[in-house]
Every structure is written in structure tokens, then in C-alpha cells.
Amino acid sequence: MILNLTPRVVRIYQADRPDGVDDIDLGLRQTIDPAPQAASLEPLPLVATTQDDTPLQLVEYGHATNLPAAREGVYLIVTRDIALALHPRRADLFVTHDDVATSDGTVIGCRALAQPI
């Protein structure tokens, strides 16, 4: 089972779906609706300092909210920043891969999901 914990619908297209086409249904394989609450990454501020008289906050990433515990057979689509922040601790996280874009460059979906390793 794959759950979408991003804030928007994930559209997955055929591998040969060309970019630059405004028809969002052309080559559409499936859509995965978002869950009621999207997962998000919450930075944990650690130390405030300065670098060359510029304020600098040392921050630890890797604390996600609305991200359920890993369950066997359940995979979660999350944003790339969440997947990378939690890698390699979570092997159940997928991200969108090989974006599909319209003629004006707006990303409307992807051709596949990816699992960061």
C-alpha cells in the first residue's frame, strides 16, 4: 500500500509521456490523493551563533510531524526534504521522480516514484 503524505495529488504518468504538453490527462497512469494531513519537517534549533557578523542558527533536521511509524507493506510518499532528512533511518519513504511539466514548466506529476538509498 502506498500513502501520499504530501500536500497535493501525486499524478504518475507513462514513461514516454512528453514534457511541454498542457493536457494533464495525456499518459496518466494513476493518481494518489493526499492524506488529510501532510507530513512536514520540523527543524530543531540547536545553537545560535554568528559567522562574519551574520546570525547563524545551527539546526538539526530529521524530526517529521504527521509521519506515522513504519509498518510492513506500507510505503509513504513524502517530500524530498523529508526523505533525505530521514535517510537511512526510514526505508519506507518514496519521493516523486522524473517530473512531468507543462509547456510553461509547471510540474504536474512524475513518471515514477523513487526510494532514496
- Unreliable parts: none
Helix content: under 10%
Shape: globular
Q: What integer value in Å does the Rg equal?
A: 17 Å
Sequence of secondary-structure elements: EEEEEEHEE
Structural class label: mainly beta
Total number of helices: 1
Could you give the order of strands across the largest sheet? 1-6-7-8
The portion of residues forming beta strands comes to: over 45%
Number of strands: 8
Distance between the termini: 20 Å
Report the mean per-residue pLDDT as an integer: 95
Q: Biggest β-sheet, characterized?
A: 4 strands, mixed
Structural notes for this entry:
- The protein has one helix and eight strands.
- A hairpin with a 2-residue loop joins strand 4 and strand 5.
- The longest helix has 7 residues.
- The chain is globular.
- The two termini are 20 Å apart.
Give a summary of the structure in a few sentences:
Helix content is 6%, strand content 48%. It has 117 residues and is mainly beta.
Topology of this structure?
Elements: E1 2-4, E2 10-13, E3 28-32, E4 40-51, E5 54-65, E6 75-77, H1 80-86, E7 93-101, E8 107-114
Parallel strand pairs: 1-6, 6-7
Antiparallel strand pairs: 2-3, 4-5, 7-8
